[in-house]
Design brief:
Helix content: 25-40%
Radius of gyration: 18 Å
Number of strands: 14
Strand content: 15-25%
Mean pLDDT: 96
Amino acid sequence: MNTVVVGAVDGYTWNQCELWWKSLKITGFKGEITLLAYNLNDKTYAEMIKRNINVIKREPGKHAQVVVNRFQDYAWFANTFSEDTWIVCTDVSDIAFQKNPEEFLWTEDGVDQEIVVASEGIFFKGNRWVRENLFSSFPSQYDRMENEILYNAGSFAARSGVLTKLALEVFAMCMKVPEARNHDQAAFNILLRDPHYGKRTLFTNSNDEWCFCGASSIFAKPEDANNYMEELPMIEDGLCYVLGHRLTTMFHHYSRDPNIAREVRKRILGT
């Protein structure tokens, strides 16, 4: 049984990484924690090494945005592990772990699929930024995707064998429109609808115990939040509960609300 958690950071300070790291550690996770680091200063590097984080310094890639280049590096990274290794690929500055991801991925029955993704609880057409990003980046895909559910590209897991291929395809698709911005998530979602990946994917909803992503619901503008299709969570003492009492493995986008961010930080860091 092998699970690795990896994030990609661009010019981050340790303060932007600490909560992500500490929240994972206090869940009891014992596996490898890796950061793919772009434009990393020596002070931050030293803080990461002090905490036994596997830091892999990466050069700026072919695209101007790290959110795109990280997928090429995910593929390279995944290829260094056995094909059945679970690699949890997450954003860093706005994700708090609430449970050990192995509790979800390695249950008694296990996850039969090779990819696990988190719903944002909306259709592509249900959020202005999301639909405009899709249309400007991949206009030929808009009609096919507007009524599809949006799955988050910063809170997924995949077996290394399939991640090497999926991540390279996301990167290649983004590189076909290099002038587009923040289009990695749109490409990721388009590829998940390919039967080759779709049949290998566990499409979790917002109220499953994988990840609650709040950008399109509790942290969205009212006109977008009204399009959220699932039950809203309860946030209490810095923890996100779905369906009243179930903790999700991850709480994503918590930093978008100052009060909630303060509660999460207090719970994890005590400050």
